[in-house]
Amino acid sequence: MEKQEDKSLKFVIQHYKFSKLDSNAAYHRLAMRIGIQKHSYKLWWAAAASFLLLLSFAGIYNYLNQTTTLYATASTTTYTLADGTKVTLSPQSSLSYKDTNCRDVEITGKVYLDIFHNPNKPFTISDDSYRINDIGTRLEVDETAKSTTVYVDQGAVSFASTSDISHALVLNQGCKAILRKSGIHPERIETKSANCVSWATHKFRFRDTPLREVLADLSDYYKVSFVSDNYNVNLTADFRADNLNTIVNVIQKSLDVKIKYKAE
């Protein structure tokens, strides 16, 4: 009996015709039947390849130019950047940077920065009107529609207008300056209290400070008012803003005064 494999081979040899099983020929016969021209087919694939390439470039561009933005909404919020810098945002403030470069930032509102110093990669805060360069710093930047104010809590910064970047103002610890939107150079201004950044640090530092100023600082932070039976005394002390009653009791005992909360 003839084997099944031999029968199949014999059938193929008898019925085989050249090009009958040619897939390219089959495609072209189908293309002619439905009206697709050979050159149109090539153009279609070329257009599709170009479109996919364009999408790839767009994706890479968007990835390399993405912006990271940190926000604070109703309450003070603290973030730690990838380089170790700690950023405290007051309510309704923000900080942003492009790509992964968190050493070059923009801000809105009031922001306190405890910058991780890297001499090989300076930290920069800037926008269209000003530029601040870190020189190993803790500082507060308060940006409004009318001005930008800088207070240096520790270290030093270089503060300049973008219209005259070569004439930067160097601010050391305890110094404060303002750049008005219409101004060309930052101007030094008086620092009323070293505790102007207590909202971010949650610390108070008093050095032979008149009691009236001490109570004003506490009032600003805790949003309450005080009265005392004697304001003619000065205080030298450091406090953490953990418990207001504890702070008031320590002041009363240290200065031998009486302090009461004042009704608004």
Structure characteristics:
single chain, 264 residues, alpha+beta, 30% helix, 35% strand, elongated
Can you put this structure into words, describing what you see?
- The protein has 264 residues and is an alpha+beta fold.
- The protein contains six helices and 17 strands.
- The chain is elongated, with a radius of gyration of 36 Å.
Number of helices: 6
Query: What Rg do the Cα atoms give?
Result: 36 Å
Distance between the termini: 116 Å
Uncertain parts: none
Q: What is the H-and-E element order?
A: HHHEEEEEEEEEEEEEHEHEEHE
Task: Tell me the number of strands.
Answer: 17
Strand content: 25-35%
Percentage of residues in helical conformation: 25-40%
Class by alpha and beta content? alpha+beta
Shape: elongated
Mean pLDDT: 84
Summarize the structure.
With 264 residues, the chain is an alpha+beta fold. It is 30% helix and 35% strand.
Structural topology:
Layout: H1 4-15, H2 23-34, H3 38-64, E1 67-71, E2 77-80, E3 86-89, E4 94-98, E5 104-114, E6 124-126, E7 130-134, E8 138-143, E9 147-154, E10 156-161, E11 169-172, E12 176-180, E13 187-189, H4 198-201, E14 203-210, H5 211-222, E15 225-228, E16 234-240, H6 244-255, E17 259-262
